[in-house]
Amino acid sequence: MSWREKLRHVNWSLVLFINGLGLVSVTALVSAADGNIEPWAGRQAMRFMVSVVMMLTVAVVDIRFWMRGAYVLYAICLVLLVVVDAHGTVGMGAQRWIDLCFIQIQPSEIMKVALTLSLARYFHGRSLEEIAKPIYLILPIIIVLLPVGLVLKQPDLGTAMMLLMVSSTLFFLAGARLWQFSVVLVTSITLVPVTWPFLHDYQRKRILTFLHPETDPLGAGYHILQSKIALGSGGLFGKGFGKGTQSHLNFLPEKQTDFIFTMWAEEQGMVGGLALLFLYTIVIALSYTLALRSRNQFGRLLGLGLTTTFFLYVFSNAAMVMGLIPVVGIPLPLLSYGGTAMMTVMFGFGLLLSIDIHRDVQMSRHCPYLRDLFKTLS
Amino acid sequence: MHGDPDRTRVLSRRMMILGLGQVGLLGALIARLYSLQVLESDRYRLLSDENRFSTRLLAPPRGRILDRFGVPLAINIPNFVIQVISERAENMEKTLDTLTRLLPLTHQDCQRIRREIERRRSFVPVMVRENLSWEEMVRIQVNFPDLSGVVIEQGFTRFYPLYELGAHVLGYVAAVAEEDQTGDRLLELPGFRVGKAGTERLHDLALRGRGGTYTVEVNAVGRIVKEVDWHEGEAGSDVHLTLDVRLQQFAAERLGLESAAVVVMDIVTGEVFVLVSTPSFDPNRFSRGLSATEWKDLMAHPQAPLTNKAVAGQYAPGSTFKMIVALAALEAGVVTPEVRIHCFGSLSLGNARFHCWKSGGHGTMDLVLGLQHSCDVYFYEVARRVGIDRIAKMARRFGLGARLGFDLPGEQNGLVPERTWKMQVMKEPWQLGETLVAGIGQGFTLATPLQLCTMVARIANGRAQVRPRLSLAPVTKGVRRPEKFEPLGVQPKNIAVVRQGMYAVSNVPGGTAYRARLNQPGLVMSGKTGTSQVRRVTQRERASGVRKNQNLPWEQRDHALFVAYAPENAPRYAMVVIVEHGCSGSKAAAPVARDIMREVLKLDPARFSTAIVRSTNH
Questions:
Q1: I need a surface site. Which of A269, A332, B249, B488 has the fewest CB within 10 A?
Q2: What is the pLDDT of residue B394?
């Protein structure tokens, strides 16, 4: 297939709904800046357009290319995470950014895709019987724990949790046995008291505040409380575009990033909030359909993993601003202002589109290096 | 598919489970959204408004109190208040420590400040101290770098430019006490003052005005974003008193250090020109805030500076009551002006003897002579003939025995005894001897200086039951219309006889106040002296015999009274002077009355009563 042909095969309805989300984002950011394009909406629109082009570019690239490059990308991300650890820029109270002069990148964001790619590739090559044996799970667990450890060290609790959840989903879909999950779960729970002293003060505080929000109405609990007030006061039909008092009088923190959903639902009401959630639901449902349509395990696992990541992002952010889970500092994908996050998400959608376009390609089951490795082991 | 259908089946099944889980989570989000935005929406809307709006009260300027010519008696002057705003302080404890070194703050002050800081939101100013002196201001200014969170605001303090003069009429303002709270939100303003006595208390609502509100939208840190609403309050309205400050001042100075009271009023309109009670107090100390010891000193003072003796002091009227007895008898027809009674110095009734103040006796007296010499025996006999109930009735008609509805708080009833009263209160029948004692204004009878002044005003007026008033009647069509009073209902010829007697007291040689006559061509003052025995001493004296006043301790000596009106040919002013424990009405009270009356006639404030008085509202 030529790339023109491939473009014809792109699932344009998914692209359409993604563009719908982009439109909501720009609208919300205009409101966040009291009706101004500056400083957020214009830049976000530019980035969005660039991202759409990038997404389509990724989509027409053969999926096997991404499969082959999975471990390489993973390795690069791992190195970047180490670099960030050593000389990252301090932002938001944690070392997360790497400054490459022209662009600031957040390796932990790209790692989400890279990790999903790597795990999908690994499980693509394993049969159900192999997965049942713990020995075949050691390598993927290492693949997961290395970046999780580095991200936690930054410290970025939210991203670490996200990486763990996506990985578990992939293990689950690949066919890992439930008793294996139980073992991991029990081990983690016993590890909690051990890791507690290593958590940062603000992380401990966030967890404790979530459990007892009334203890600290002006501190960490303040954000959740103000977000709930904003949502509740919005009511069924909202306060109107640009009229969200909670957002515009700065009672709401970070309205252009983490709390953008709150601002949207304060101004547009429950009707607007539900419409936005509905838009997300369509995008997620479409993505799952595309993933399941793939005729190879790699495409399915990758597609499902990416979609699950997207879902977890949307859910965690919405649940956080509604006070259902602790404040974890996770942006709302495609809506929150921010470059890296958007690039990552669009890269993911590009991969999804690519999976769909290449759903019928033949794919080798085995990675020659790994096959040799396992042979020597057994 | 590469021949691994099992793997695909497991994945599809597990994907189904995952999908269901995600649908469940989505449902949870929707449910939560519904609960927040629909079920609890009202509560959150309220919280959002509470966040957003901050309504502040604007204290209206308190109305001024002016005398009849617009001379200010109570005004507002700027006052520097030092406040702390905890939000702006780097370290509140440090700031408070520094403040304690710079200002004399007591331990209680500090505790109150800390309590308020804790109770209020961090951007609400908390008052540290008011009425900073210039020196204190400078000290604060110099140390400003160490005083983060401190702000100096300008407020207003009530100021009485005449200090002690007229304090009893004006009263004072003080901090709002718990029991003053009426629901008016103004009263909750920090540092707000309400009238606690006198005119300040009586007209408090009018003077207070109505608070404005000022609603602002504030952002998360409490900074004002925009003004939403501004309701200008109403400034308190000025109160115009009938007083003439010049006369008030003259009277107060004339009384000097005596414990005394003076009232001067217009016998036509009832307007009170002078109302003095000495010793006085400085109401400015109250607006500043009185310390506990200052308060105790004022309360314990033997001459009761806080009591307005003119309206709240009750005295036996003594001989000033004889006009009432005479009028009762004349109206009842039991005596005529010509009836003569011989005074031997005492009168016997059964086993008791009733003494005249002149032990040798006055000889033969008619009514005018009886008044002129204030012959007790004459009035014992007249009282005996007319009976107590008719005397009481006449006394009431002349304003005694009940509150006059005067516009000052704390007015007392006085007491006019009669048969039924004694039966009710003392459960004993009335004795004829008590009628005789009442005939010279002693015994149970009590009157306030204001009542005695009113009594004289009605005698001088002769037609109407004039009532005293302290606030100027409103101006209608450029004219201050005098109040309409009930008719007096006493025959003019009887009034004329009594006035003839009062004329003789002050103007005919031998009259008890002849020596204190108003020696002024064309201006004649008529009056009546009174010497009222302090009641508990009276009872003791009955048992132990006569003791000379000068030998008694101050607080047991007789009160000196003088009532007067002038000018005789066309009366306009009525006056009462009471000098507590002044021993003798003719020696202690009459000269004071003469001097004040001379000044009153000279300034003649009543000239302006019905004329246009320009309102000096601004």
A1: B249
A2: 95
Place of tokens 């995600």: B22
Distance CA B564, CA B586 (A): 12
Interface membership of B519 toward A (CB under 8 Å): no
Structural domain boundaries, residue A116: 3-377
In order of start, what are the domains of chain B with their CATH numbers? 55-240 (3.90.1310.10), 245-281+309-608 (3.40.710.10)
Number of folded domains that form chain A: 1
Residue A272 in contact with residue A240, Cβ under 8 Å? no
* Listed residue (B607, B602, B617) closest to B480, CA to CA: B607
Could you tell me if B7 lies within 8 Å of chain A, comparing CB atoms? yes
Q: B44–A296: do the CB atoms touch at under 8 Å?
A: no
Which value does ipTM take for this structure?
Answer: 0.87
* 3-state DSSP assignment of residue B40: coil
Question: Residue A368: what pLDDT?
Answer: 59
> Is A364 an 8 Å CB contact of chain B?
no
pLDDT tens per residue across span B414-440? 999 999 999 999 899 999 999 999 999
Interface of B with A in 196-235 (CB under 8 A): 217-221, 225
B532-570 pLDDT tens trace: 887 544 445 544 555 667 777 877 888 999 999 989 989
Å between A231 CA and nearest CA of chain B:
6
Interface mutation target, options A237, A249, A315, chain B, most CBs of B under 10 Å: A249
